[in-house]
Amino acid sequence: MSPQCIGYIIGIIALTVLSAFFSASETAYNSLNKIKLKNKANEGSKGAKKALLLVDNYDKLITTILIGNNIVNIAAATIATLLFTEIIKSADLAATVSTIVVTVITLIFGEITPKSIAKEFSESFATKVATILQILCLIFTPFTYIFSLWQKLMIKIFKPSSNSGMSEAELITMVDEATTEGGIDEDEGELIRSAIEFNELTVKDIFTPRVDVIAVDVEAKKDELRDLFLENGFSRLPVFEEDIDNVIGILHEKDFYKNYFKKEFDIRKYMTQTIWVTLNSNLSSVLKMLQKSKAHMAVVLDEYGGTAGIVTLEDILEELVGEIWDEHDEVVEDITQISENEYQITGGCNIEDMFDKLEQKYDSDDLEVTTVSGWIVDHFGYIPSSGEQFDFNNLTIKVLDADPKKIEKIYVKVLNKQEEEEENTFIDKFFMKDNDEKEEDVKKSEKIFHKDDKPVDNIEKPNIKSEKDSENENKISFDDIEISNFDK
């Protein structure tokens, strides 16, 4: 083989390496996680800082990569044609063989292989090649400027929709993926989801209804008040005048016992001011109201001005951190699992919690009730007796305990889940991969590739654009909330 042919071969190899570099860079910057990159930059990684600058100038970056990739691929094809023309005397045959060989080499070594590797290690690869790409961007500046003018022209012609920012649904999906992939544990994921969805909750979702409220008459005697505090274990009691629709204050247990031995005992002197909210009040605004008033309880009004129930600070915080029990509480579980597919559920359980637990599809906007009892009564059209049952989707529901006013307890059996009829074509099934095996392969590869990388423990929370200006006024600060001595 002549020295000229050897030179051609070396040139093709070098150009294929460059093609692999550009292809891998394109995939890495297309699939990298910007949040992880920001955390690396905050930890002091210079490569991550440079990579972030390139991401912020993505149009210039992608133009540079595409220009470079096309140049090296065209050059490789040209040199390959010269090589095979030297080897094969027939010009037509040489051109055909050259096209086939270059196509195969480019696809395997210049496209598929580097892009597959770069996708799995996008952040690490992006940080390692950031400096080289910055230099190339500087070299290709005249070309990128011309293409940027063309891009502006295309934008004016097609007028793409403006980016509205990340939505809450997208952020929740990110949290779910991070939980599934092991980036955060289940408890952390649940706390983040609760915080994201908090502003969507209203008092109606969590309040204690009127029938379950323990209140005291303003004319009650000291001994009667003492018995109520001892029997129920509450630290605060609503005080009403004439009837419970006229709540005039809240009596704290400490204030009661502090003045218990006084000869003249008047509840009016020791009770605190009532905080009024409505069923549709946003929880974040109620929380701010309770913080500002240094109160732990608010009275909930119905649409007619009567008392619908009460809501406490503990009720609100439980929506964020889950149930809060103290050493004197009687733990009551709304949903008790009897066996693998059998449950016992209280009538006061939130209907959405039941559906979520039993993996039932529902539209929260279509639910006109909030409790299991209300849902079952709505289904029957009357208050069913103990022993009555019905089927719903793949559930068999039986009333275990009911009184003339409401349902206390039900039994639910989950039947064998019917396989959902998914219209998966042969092509769809072809692309379904075994994620467990793939993740195991990635973990093994990361041990080799990420030798010098530090783990990213902190995830920066993206900024979510609010749709309503009023929601900005309800931003929550938990610094000044006293978490001890919650109402039960």
Task: Describe the protein's topology.
Layout: H1 3-31, H2 34-42, H3 46-56, H4 58-87, H5 91-120, H6 122-139, H7 141-158, H8 168-180, H9 186-197, E1 208-209, E2 216-217, H10 222-232, E3 236-241, E4 243-252, H11 253-258, H12 267-270, E5 276-278, H13 283-293, E6 297-301, E7 307-312, H14 313-321, E8 335-339, E9 342-346, H15 351-357, H16 372-380, E10 389-392, E11 395-402, E12 407-414, H17 426-431, H18 435-449
Parallel strand pairs: 2-3, 5-6
Antiparallel strand pairs: 1-7, 3-4, 6-7, 8-9, 9-12, 10-11, 11-12
Helix pairs in contact: 1-4, 1-5, 1-6, 2-3, 3-6, 4-5, 4-6, 4-7, 8-9
Describe this structure in words.
- This protein starts with a helix and ends in a 39-residue tail after the last helix.
- Helix 1 (3-31) crosses helix 6 and helix 4 (58-87) crosses helix 7 (141-158).
- It is elongated.
- Strands 8-9-12-11-10 form a five-stranded antiparallel β-sheet, covered by helices on one side. The protein has a four-stranded mixed β-sheet with strand order 1-7-6-5.
- The protein is built from 18 helices and twelve strands.
- The protein has 488 residues and is of the alpha+beta class.
- A hairpin with a 2-residue loop joins strand 10 (389-392) and strand 11.
- It is 51% helix and 13% strand.
Q: What's the gist of this structure?
A:
It contains 18 helices and twelve strands. It has 488 residues and is of the alpha+beta class. Residues 418-422 and 448-488 have low confidence and may be disordered.
